[in-house]
Structure formats: structure tokens, C-alpha cells
Amino acid sequence: MGAPVIQLQGVTRVYAAGENRVQALRGIDLEVAAGEMVAIMGASGSGKSTLMHILGCLDRPTSGRYLLHGQDVSRLAPDQLAYIRNREIGFVFQSFNLIGNMTAWENVALPLIYAGVSRREMQARSLTALRQVGLEGREHHLPTQLSGGQQQRVAIARALVNEPAIILADEPTGALDTRTSVEVMAIFQRLHRERGLTVVIVTHEPDIAAYCRRLVRLRDGLIVADEVVEQPRQAEKELAALPAGEGKE
Amino acid sequence: MNLRAALAVAWRGLLANKMRSLLTMLGIIIGVAAVIVMISIGQGATAQVTERIARMGSNLLLVRPGTGFGAVRGAAGTVNTLTLDDATAIASLPLVQNVAPEINQQVTAAAGSQTWTTTVKGTSASYPEIRNLPVAAGSFFTAEDVAQAALVAVLGPTVEANLFPNGTSAVGQTITLNNLRFTVIGVLAPQGSGMGGADQDDMVYIPVTTAQRRFTGRHNVQVINVQARDAESLNTVQDEVAALLRLRHHLSPQQADDFTIQNMTAIMETVADTTKTMTLLLASVAAVSLLVGGIGIMNIMLVSVTERTREIGIRMAVGATSGAILTQFLIEALVLSLAGGVIGMLAGLTGSRLVSVLAGWPAVIAPASILLAIGFSAMVGIFFGYYPARKAATANPIEALRYE
């Protein structure tokens, strides 16, 4: 495990909701080293979504510091945050969030558009990313022509394409059936193992958290547990054992 | 995000909703087409008027007997206040270049077995010069012919065609006008219809003296064409002619003129001005439809921004700055309005060609009106696209991602 990629120091987030002040995060200290695969768990209202938004540079902490690769990003202007999101962060969402009228490879290439990459390179890099998630041959399919599992794999390819420091997955299997969920987790585990990717998965499902080596539990805006998972589940082995479901996609 | 990528994204967005895009563009299409057609109609009409000015002859005054424009037709036979001597006197004014009196009379022309009812115009040798009438064959009669009241005639092409239908040249032939024998010495080039639609080619030109002696039997003339030396002296000449005629007709200061001077250039300028005003009016009505088209674009862009809130969130999450989102939607509005502008321009060009063919006008397509229409539609796109684009760009990415 390398130097910390993520360092949160006393991070709070307060929402002003009319007269009320909602304290979503009450002081989070968290370090994630390069190449870790971490699950952040918590019930709804625990602040895990807020934490995810701050980790993903979609939001800024009310107080405290967020160092990404040692750079304090907690006080950056919106355009600088957009730059960080573009270069350092790959998002995977529960509902895939693909753009409906764009083909698979165009969806994957989306971050590259904003990185000022030439079209030729965009194509080459998104095809590589699609190959890494096992979707070669589907480059020109529209999201509606793909199954849920395939769509999420396109989204993972999109998260990978800019070679970010971290992949942030927000309930990545929330909209998938069991077998497809295992398949998606297998991809995360393989990328983590083979490419040393740092993966942070936010989930409320213990089954999914069990695929990660480290488990961080949130409750009421505070970290209540930060433990090592001794025997993480191995998605690929489980897949081999599972009866063939919808078949190899 | 480079411009090409932004254009590609915008283009795709428009293709995704073809019907809606087309309907949105329709306002701009109609607006631009209307502006171009209106300007083209206006300029065609102006060009036609200008052409007629040139054809009638420049720096021209028409002196007629009687008072007032309306009185002329009725007065031609009854008011006999202008004479050949008046014309001669006017010719001696220093600023006058040429003078040509006119006597018009209905006659029956015949050659061999062919007869044709036409108008004989008695005038002087300078008439073709004043009225810009090119001679197609032979020559016009000379001052000598006028002095001798020679029995020579110059035919308009319509008359030649009717009297000599087998295509032989009329020059050198003999024709009769009301049974009087004339030698044809020339044929004029075709002129087409003049102001008021009369066929100027259906005319036989003979010396004014001949017309007076052989047809009308009087010394009066119906019109005196006066050509000033240049445009600047036209008004001076008009005043001098009026003063001269009042003197010659012994009119006391209390009496009204017994003649009317028409300044053809002034009349044409008035007509041209009116046409210009009408054009402006029509074009501004057309411009209003451009404005309405712009509002249509704003409406659809607002709908589009709302519909694509989630897309905006996704784009922001993967690194689009608000500037990039603004650019994208602005370019989308611009593509919409410019595409409408180009289609409208094509429709406008087709329309104005059609109108010019139907109206027999010269097809005037001003490049300026095309630039204007395109520029205006681009402006409409930017102006009405800015607010929706701004709305998209200021979206909160977290909320946009949650948007259902």
C-alpha cells in the first residue's frame, strides 16, 4: 500500500435548510492509501452520500481539509473542482447515468471531451477501457440496447478512461440482480488487483461491502468503525460456482 | 472542450428530436425567408423603376397642355395651348439640351394586304436621343425631314411585325397611314411596355410637321419633351420653361398655368421612395416573425435544459465546467437558429426567384440581405439561447444527478 491518496481531516458539512441547520458530517478523519479497496457503509441519513459528494469533489466541506494526492481541494473554485473531477475521479452511479442518445464508446469518451483529447485518441482510449470491462464489440450500442450489467460496465469504463486516482462507486449494484452484481464486483476486484486502482464503494449492503478489504461504517455523520475485512469475498470464484444466469455477456 | 466536439454534441442533440427541432426552426425559417423575399421584392421593384427612368431618358421634363396630371388625357384634344413654336422657343433656352414635340394620333397602317391599327407619333429628330430609343434597322428621320415634312416613317417593332409578318425588313418598303403613302426608313429596337403598361413598340414615328399637316391639321402639339443638359440644371430648366411659356402665352400673374410640367426624375424618385418605404415596412413585419422564432427557440431550449438536467449532472460529474455546459447549450441554440437561417435563406432565394418570374421583375438577390438574415438568426440564437444555457450552466451537479 502506497502513500495516502485521500486524506480527510476534521471534515464537516452543514446544510442550511431554512431555519434549521442539518449537520450531515460532524468531523470525519479518514485516510485511504493508493491501491486500497474500501467500502463505506451506513444507513440512509448516516451522511455517506454527503461524504461521497465531498470525496468526489462535487461538494466542498463546511470545515476541515480534504487532501487529494496531498493537494488541498477543499477550498477550490467550482471550475477547479471540475478539473479535479475530470482528471482524478471516476464516478460509478447506482443508476448508471449514461447519456441515452450516445453510443457506448461515446459515453465512455465523455470525460475525454472535457480533457481536450483529440477524437482519434478519444476513440482509442475508450475502446481500451471498454475492453477492460469485457465489452469489446458493443462500442456502437446505445445504452437501451445493453443489459443493466452491461450498462454499468460501460459506466465503469467511463470512470476508468481518464486514468483517475480513485474510482468512486455509489451503490454500484443497487439496480442489478444478484448475478450481475457479482459480475460487476468481479470487475472492480480485478481492476483493483491488476491495475492497483483505488476503489471507494459506498453502499448500504453488507454483501457488497464484503468484497472490499476495508470497511468504514458511518452513523450520524461520524465514523463509528474502520476495520479490515479478514476474508473478503472473491467475486470471480463465486461466479464460477454460480449456475450460468443470463450467460456470458 | 473544443468547438468541433461542441458542434457534434449540439448536432446530435438536435437530431435526437428531429420533429421538435424542425418546428422550432420553423419560426426562424419563415422569418428569414420572409425578410429575404421582402427585400428582394422591394429591390426588384426599385430596380424596375430605375430601369424605367433610364429607359424614358434622363433629365427629362414633359410639358403638356392643360392643368394638372389628371387633366392631361381629357385635355389633349381640347386644350390646345402648346404649339410647335413653343417647342422651338424652349429649345433656345441655354440649359436645354434637346427638345422634341409630340403629336399622337390613332391611324390605320397598311402594307400590302396587312392592316394594323396603331398610334402615329409626330415628333422631331431628337426624340430617340431624348427617350433612349435605339434604332434597330435603317435610321431615324432627320431635322431636314422634319423641315420638309417628309413622308417618311420609323416603325416600332410591333408595327413592323404586324405589317410584315413574313419577316422581311420593313426598311425601304412603302406603307400607308390612313391611306397616305410613307416610306419606311427605320425600325426601332424593342422597348417593352412603359409606365402604365402601354406598348411603346406599337408606334409609328413620323416628322411632327408631317403629322400636323397631314393628320391633325393644327399647329398645336400634345407633349413637349424637354431634356436638360444635366441633372443639376433640371429644376432650373423647369422654372425657365414655365416662365418662358407663361410669357409666350401672355398669362397675367393672377392666371394659372395653362400647361403642366412633369419632372420625370422627380416622379420616379417619389415612386422609388415609396417602394423603399414599403420594403422597409414589409421587412420589419418579417423581422417580427424572426423575433417570434427566437422566442420559440428559447422555449424549446428551456424545455431541453430541464429534460436533460440529468445529462448536465453527468457531464459536470465527469469534469464539464459550467463554461463548457454554457457553450454546449449556446451552440445548440445557435445551430438551431443558424440551420433555420440557412433553410430560410434557401426558401427565401427560391421564393424571390419565383416572385420575380411571376412579376416579371429583375431577380435582385442582395448579398446584404442574406448576410443580414444569417447574422440576425445567429443573433437571435445567441440572445434567446443565453438564458436557457445559463440555467443549465448554473445547475448544481448533485441535484442535477438526482433529478428524475
Keywords:
heterodimer, A: 249 residues, alpha/beta, Rossmann fold, six-stranded mixed sheet, four-stranded antiparallel sheet, 8 helices, 10 strands, 28% strand, B: 404 residues, alpha+beta, 2 domains, six-stranded mixed beta barrel, 14 helices, 58% helix, 17% strand, elongated
Let me know the number of strands of chain B: 10
Query: From the coordinates shown, what is the CATH architecture of the domain at 36-46 and 85-241 in chain A?
Result: 3-Layer(aba) Sandwich
Number of helices of chain B: 14
CATH homologous superfamily of the domain at 36-46 and 85-241 in chain A - what is it?
A: P-loop containing nucleotide triphosphate hydrolases
Show unreliable segments of chain A: none
The helix content of chain B, as a percent range, equals: 55-70%
Using the coordinates above, name the CATH class of the domain at 36-46 and 85-241 in chain A: Alpha Beta
Alpha-carbon Rg of chain A, integer? 18 Å
Distance between the termini of chain B: 27 Å
Shape of chain A: globular
The strands making up the biggest β-sheet of chain A line up spatially as 6-7-8-3-9-10
Q: Largest beta sheet of chain B: what is the strand line-up?
A: 2-3-8-5-7-6
Main sheet attributes: strand count, strand direction, barrel closure of chain B: 6 strands, mixed, barrel
What string, H for helix and E for strand, traces the elements of chain B in order? HHEHHEEHEHEHEEEHEHEHHHHH
Radius of gyration of chain B: 33 Å
Weakly predicted, low-confidence segments of chain B: 70-77
Subunit organisation of the chains: heterodimer
Amount of beta strand of chain B: 15-25%
Order of helices and strands of chain A: EEEHEEHEHHHEHEHEEH
User: What do the pLDDT scores of chain A average to?
Assistant: 90
Domain ABC transporter (chain A): 6-245
EC number (chain A): 3.6.3.-
InterPro entries (chain A): AAA+_ATPase, ABC_transporter-like_ATP-bd, ABC_transporter-like_CS, ABC_transpr_LolD-like, MacB-like_ATP-bd, P-loop_NTPase
GO molecular function, one term (chain A): ATP hydrolysis activity
